[in-house]
Design a protein that fits this description.
Elements lengths: L1 E3 L5 E3 L26 H23 L32 H9 L6 H13 L1
Antiparallel strand pairs: 1-2
Length: 122
């Protein structure tokens, strides 16, 4: 906005200086074309994906050697449940698990995952 005073001098009232560029707006440079991945990359990814799928399905069906283990279970029992278990089993309360989570190396990945699932149930 400009107005003229009686002495005929122009006074500018704008707060931002006007651009002296001839372009009206910024146009970014054209994107560089990334080279296409080699054919072996797609074949390798597909092979790994299908191999993993076969391993998961055969493990689910019990066709792989070894027995499926249930090492980490969440069990809700009544007060009269017998607490005699084999030597390699341990009963742990939820509060004890939460306390062990605060310490770095007492729970492994499987137990931490179980606690994470347990948190979603409560």
């Amino acid at each position: 906005m400009t107005w003229r005073n009686p002495a005929r001098r122009a006074i500018s009232l704008s707060l931002v200086p006007q651009s002296k560029s001839k372009r009206s707006r910024y146009t970014p440079p054209p994107p560089k074309n990334a080279p296409a991945s080699p054919l072996w990359m797609g074949v390798a990814i597909t092979t790994f994906l299908l191999t993993g799928l076969v391993v998961v399905v055969t493990n689910y069906l019990g066709l792989l050697p070894g027995d499926a283990e249930n090492r980490y279970l969440i069990v809700e029992v009544e007060d009269d449940f017998p607490l005699t278990v084999p030597e390699d089993y341990r009963w742990v309360t939820v509060n004890q698990l939460m306390g062990l989570l605060r310490l770095s190396n007492y729970l492994n990945v499987e137990a931490r995952s179980l606690v994470a699932c347990l948190n979603t149930l409560w």
